[in-house]
Amino acid sequence: MRRVRVVTNQNSPLPNPGGAGQTGDVHPLIEVSALDRLLRRQTPLVLLDVRWHLAGPPGIESYRKGHLPGAVFVDLDRDIAGPPGPGGRHPLPASGDFEAAMRRAGVSADRLVVVYDDADSTAAARVWWSLRYFGHDRVRVLDGGYRAWTEAGHQVTTADPEIKPGDFIAAPGRLPVLDADGAAALAGAGVLLDARAAERYRGEQEPVDPVAGHIPGARNAPTSGNVGVDGRFLPPGLLRERFAQLGATDALDVGAYCGSGVTAAHEILALNLAGIPAALYVGSWSDWVADPSHPVAIGDA
C-alpha cells in the first residue's frame, strides 16, 4: 500500500515503528519508583512541574503548595506555547522563546528531563512532545504524575529549587507536524484522530472554541481512553488494540488533533507507546475554525 505523506516538515519523516519510545533515545515514561531511585542517587536531571488547568486555579498555585524536590515550575501557556492567535490557542512558540524558557528552567542537551503534571500526563505530554520537537533526545514523563508520587508516600516540598541555567539549543522540526491542509488530507488518505471528548467531537457542546464539530473524516479517540482510573497509561498492548479498532496502525499515516494541541500531544505519546508513529496538528480545532472556509462535520463519523 502506498503511504501518503502529509506532514508539513518533510525533512522530519515519521519515526520508524517498532515499539515504545521510538521517537526518542529513552523510553518516554518513567515510573515513580525509578524516579525516586534516580533522585536518591543524585543523578543529574532536570525535573519540570507543568501542572496546568484549562479551567480552575493556575498551576503555579498547586506548585507553591507542594512539588517534587528540585522540580522547577514551567507555565504551559507562557513557556511551552506561543501567544494565541490565528494559529490556534496554543501554537508552537518561536524557537528562541522556547529555548530561553527551557534554559531558565535548567534544561541542557546532555541532561535527562523528567516532566510531570497532576496525574494523567495531559500537560506533561505537550512538554515531552515540544522538547522532542525542538531537539532534546532524553525526555520522560512521570507516569501517574504528582498524584502517583504522593500516593507512594514520597516527599514533597514547598522550597524553591536552585536553578543552574541550561544550555539547551532549540532545533525545530525533529517531529512531524500537520497544518490545516495536511490534517484535511490525512483524514482522507490515512487516519486522523480527534482527541477531544465525544460530545465536543459530535458538536453537541463546545465550551472553548466558537464553532462546534470536527474535521470531516476524523475519528474520535478521547485521551481519557489512553489511561486508567489512576491516571497511568494503559499497557502498550491495550493501546495497540484501542487504536487498531479506530483503524490506526503502523501501516498507515496517522495524525492527531484536539482543541488547541495539548491533549493531542497526549494522543501522540499514547500512539508512540503503542509503536505507532504519528504527526501532531498543533493548531488543532482552534486553528481549523479560525478559517470560515474549512468544512465542519457534526455527529458520529
UniProtKB/TrEMBL annotation:
Pfam families: Rhodanese. Residues 1-25 are annotated as: Disordered. PROSITE patterns: RHODANESE_1, RHODANESE_3. GO terms for molecular function: thiosulfate-cyanide sulfurtransferase activity. CDD domains: TST_Repeat_1 (cd01448), TST_Repeat_2 (cd01449). Keywords: Repeat, Transferase. Residues 41-158, 186-297 form the Rhodanese domain. The keyword Transferase applies. This is Sulfurtransferase. It comes from Actinomadura rubrisoli.
